[in-house]
Design brief:
The protein has 268 residues and is an alpha/beta fold. It has helices at residues 4-8, 13-39, 56-63, 78-84, 123-133, 152-165, 167-174, 182-191, 211-220, 230-243, and strands at 47-50, 71-75, 92-95, 108-114, 134-145, 198-202, 205-208, 254-257, 260-266. The protein has one domain (4-266): Rossmann fold (3-Layer(aba) Sandwich). Strands 3-2-1-4-5-9-6 form a seven-stranded mixed sheet, sandwiched between helices. The protein has a two-stranded antiparallel ribbon with strand order 7-8.
Amino acid sequence: MTTQAAIAGQVSTTAAEIYDEFFVPALFGAWAGPLCNRAQVSPGQAVLDVACGTGATTREAVRRASPGDRVTGLDRNEGMLAVAATHADEIEWVEGLAEALPFADGEFDTVLCQFGLMFFDNRAQALNEMRRVVRPNGRIALSVWDRAENSPGYAEMIGLIDSMFGAQAADALRAPFNLGDRHEFQKVLNAGGLDAAHITTEPGVARFASIREWVRMDVRGWTLSDFIDDDGFEALVAAAEETFGQFTNPEGAVEFPAPAHIAVWEHH
């Protein structure tokens, strides 16, 4: 069973800073463009980014906007928003729940959600809320990670953590992949009224400067610190460096496939 922190994606401000400094360039930043492309984000739109984290996708939406366009990032996590606010003054940052969006009906042309749906307490309610706040002819675009088995580095890391620290720790790292099965993803979309959404699976690549940095991000920038202390961290680094050579180049940098599903729903 995962901890409630793992389910909700709650992190401290310090973890949010690590997340922003390392996870965004390693994993999340590369997906902001494809998600905005699929959503057809363009000048003149009001855009809401739900579960915005430190704002990688929100900032991409701003880059595609005209001056004065409304771009809003919402997250339940105060630590994430504190870091997000250091990047962009023109974005409206709002603390709130996806299941109870603090906006009126039809306020936005586009609603984005990058790698957040997996962690919502009530996914169907969150999707219904997204539908409520999007205007007619608007779009909702969501991304979720493909199955862990299709991201070989994480499949191996989950197995290693399970063997060293137990199932609960492994489940905390497995949680981001829990909508990786396309049929399960479609069921969740259907339950939230997005049954007409179009799903594509797109390739991606995870890149880390080294195995140590990869482990540091997973342990210190996510929720594994609940399970792995400093000694455990060093032991995990040593074990990963010994067994994960297939994911590193001669300089020690890490790279492996990390595909994701993107769903787009149009409000007709």
